[in-house]
Structure formats: structure tokens, C-alpha cells
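Field log, afternoon session.

UNIT: design team B
ACTIVITY: writing a sequence onto a fixed backbone
BACKBONE:
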């Protein structure tokens, strides 16, 4: 008997209801993760990466956005059918999260000890005050906060940006999650601190075996941090597969274009390749493949219907008619 995946997202649909009309921000997303997997979720701004994560966590902006279909299977349950109370238990304990700006996740009026201790208290994981203190110190050490004893009574404003994000990671870890969702966790950090933080995520993942979903614009970060990648375009995953496979020989023309737009390390390119054209207006998306107007492989048939995502012979998945017609690869 094959085991069910750790997380299985099936045909997820989340729409935003705006004055100008309905935006299909997440439009039939499906993927599965196993224990220990780290998935890089990439794509241009507005492609639906954050909305996908927020739909899984059920943290959508209300009343603007609503999940209207699909399933999010986690540990035998569909998260979309849980009560708000049950969902609060899942968030922070079973599924941890790290957002772009650590200040949003940290409470300015509570000490670091109090905030990092909260998940231990919630799940009754500490036997008394001194055990709780030891557990908080231990998790602060795991995220490499220097002199953690001296930091316990401090407040978030006394920490640097990198230390704040480490504290958010410590809070997530304190819940002992099976999955960590990190939505552009390094965007607010300096480049050198970014590297350290990503190294920390990898290290924690190796140690705990938790799975990771990492949202980023940066394919270089994905190459270094993840073993799987999902490329999103206009609310859909257009390519999904093993990182090495997808990044060394992309199947979808959009993935190919994203890779071409990457700066080459060690060179000083004056002008980076830019993907021509604009992402589609999601209020009025094209009837056919959403990438067709920008695609150098587009065929007449691409204008007619959005291609479904299909498994290719090498195991990865991609949504492209040119692939099916043998035009690509
Ligand atoms: N609160 C909101 N109200 C209306 N529409 C929204 C709202 N939040 C997001 N959207 C729309 O949903 C779509 C997907 O947004 P999302 O934030 O998921 O994109 P993203 O890929 O994470 O982009 P970025 O990389 O810029 O964070 C966008 O077209 C956006 O305009």
C-alpha cells in the first residue's frame, strides 16, 4: 500500500472579489509534498504564490478573497473543512509559518521569552518554568541567536532584522511543525543575512525532517534550498518537478524564460534578458494558455484553451500544448 503524501493540494481555487470583477488568483493548483521535501514556489509578482500559501493556512484577506474549491489534505484531514478553532491548532503547531516582514509576526509588547515560549505552553510541552526556559533557550540556540540568556527579556525592537526573522523561525520551530511555509522570508533582510537565514532553514529542515514551502522570486535561492519546484503563472502551476531537472532543462517556455532572465554569477551583464510583454490581466484572462501572448513557441491551438498540466515521460509535470505536440524537448 502506498502512503498518502504529507500534504496534498488538489484543484485549489481561490478568487478575489474586487470592485472591478473577480480575480482568479489561484486557479486549480495541485501538488503533493512528502516529509522532508522542500518546495520552491516561484513566478512573477501577482502569479498567486502568496494566495496559494494563504489558502493552505486559511489566512486569506477577508472579505476580498475566498477559497471556492479544492481540497488541502493534511494528516488525513481536509484543512478547508476544519472549524476556525481546529485550524488555529493546525497553524503554529502542525504547520509553521514565516512571513516576509518579521515585525508582522512578532508582538511588540511581549518579550522574546514570552513569544518563543507560547507554542510550548500551548501544547503543554514544558514541565514548569525552568523547563520552559530551557526549551526556549534551546530553540533560540538552534536558530543561532547569540547569547540567548541575555536576549530572553528583550523586546523585538531591540533585535536586528535578521535576528527578528530568526526569532520568528524559533517560534515556528517551537511548535514542532511537520511543514513550514515561508513566504519570501528573506526579502526584508540584507543579502549576507539572507544567505545565513536560508542556510539556517536548510539546517533546521535536515535536523527535524519537516517539509518546507518557500515562496521566492529568486530561482538561485530555489536551486540552493529546495529539492522540488513549482512554477506559477497566472494562478496556475505550469511546471512542477525535481529542482535539478526543471532548472537545468526547463520544459515549459515560461520556466525557460525565467531562467534566461537570471543574472549569471560572476558576470556583469549590463542588460538582463527580460520576458517580453506583460502578465495577463487576471480580471479578463485570455481564453487560451495565459502565457501564449508572450511565448515564442505559441501555436494557433494555444489561443483556444488553457492546457492542462500533464506528467511527462521524465516524471515532471508541465502544462504546454507545444510539449504535447513534440515542439519542446
Ligand atoms: N487583498 C486582495 N484583494 C484583491 N486582489 C488581491 C488581493 N491580494 C491579492 N490579490 C490578487 O491576487 C493575485 C495573486 O496575488 P499573490 O499575492 O498571491 O501573488 P504573488 O505571486 O504572491 O505576488 P508577489 O510575488 O508580488 O507577492 C494578484 O493578481 C493580486 O492582484
Amino acid at each position: 500500500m502506498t502512503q498518502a503524501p504529507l500534504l496534498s493540494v488538489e484543484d485549489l481555487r481561490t478568487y478575489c472579489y474586487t470592485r472591478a470583477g473577480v480575480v482568479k488568483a489561484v486557479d486549480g493548483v495541485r501538488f503533493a509534498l512528502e516529509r522532508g521535501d522542500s518546495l520552491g514556489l516561484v513566478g512573477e509578482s501577482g502569479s498567486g504564490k502568496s494566495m496559494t500559501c494563504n489558502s493552505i493556512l486559511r489566512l486569506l484577506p477577508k472579505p476580498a478573497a475566498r477559497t471556492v474549491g479544492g481540497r488541502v489534505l493534511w494528516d488525513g484531514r481536509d484543512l478547508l473543512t476544519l472549524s476556525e478553532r481546529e485550524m488555529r491548532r493546525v497553524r503554529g503547531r502542525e504547520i509553521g509559518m514565516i512571513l516576509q516582514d518579521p515585525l508582522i509576526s512578532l508582538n511588540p509588547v511581549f518579550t522574546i521569552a514570552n513569544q518563543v515560549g507560547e507554542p510550548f505552553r500551548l501544547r503543554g510541552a514544558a514541565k514548569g518554568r525552568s523547563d520552559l526556559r530551557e526549551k526556549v533557550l534551546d530553540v533560540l540556540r538552534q536558530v543561532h541567536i547569540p547569547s540567548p540568556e541575555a536576549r530572553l527579556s528583550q523586546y523585538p525592537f531591540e533585535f536586528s532584522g535578521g535576528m527578528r526573522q530568526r526569532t520568528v523561525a524559533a517560534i515556528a520551530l517551537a511548535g514542532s511543525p511537520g511543514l513550514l511555509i515561508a513566504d519570501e522570508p528573506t526579502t526584508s533582510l540584507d543579502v549576507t543575512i539572507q544567505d545565513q537565514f536560508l542556510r539556517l532553514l536548510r539546517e533546521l529542515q535536515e535536523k527535524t525532517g519537516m517539509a518546507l514551502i518557500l515562496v521566492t522570486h529568486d530561482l538561485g535561492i530555489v536551486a540552493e534550498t529546495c529539492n522540488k519546484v513549482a512554477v506559477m503563472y497566472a494562478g496556475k502551476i505550469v511546471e512542477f518537478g525535481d529542482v535539478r531537472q526543471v532548472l537545468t532543462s526547463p520544459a515549459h517556455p515560461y520556466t525557460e524564460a525565467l531562467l534566461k532572465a537570471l543574472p549569471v554569477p560572476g558576470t556583469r551583464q549590463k542588460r538582463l534578458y527580460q520576458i517580453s510583454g506583460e502578465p495577463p490581466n487576471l480580471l479578463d484572462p485570455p481564453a487560451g494558455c495565459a502565457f501564449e501572448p508572450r511565448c515564442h513557441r505559441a501555436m494557433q491551438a494555444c489561443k483556444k484553451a488553457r492546457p492542462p498540466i500533464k506528467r511527462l515521460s521524465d516524471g515532471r509535470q508541465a502544462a504546454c500544448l507545444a510539449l504535447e505536440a513534440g515542439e519542446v524537448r
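LOG NOTE: Residues 16, 18, 23, 25, 43, 45-51, 61, 64-65, 217, 282 surround adenosine-5'-triphosphate (CB under 6 Å).
NEXT ACTIVITY: expression trials, pending approval
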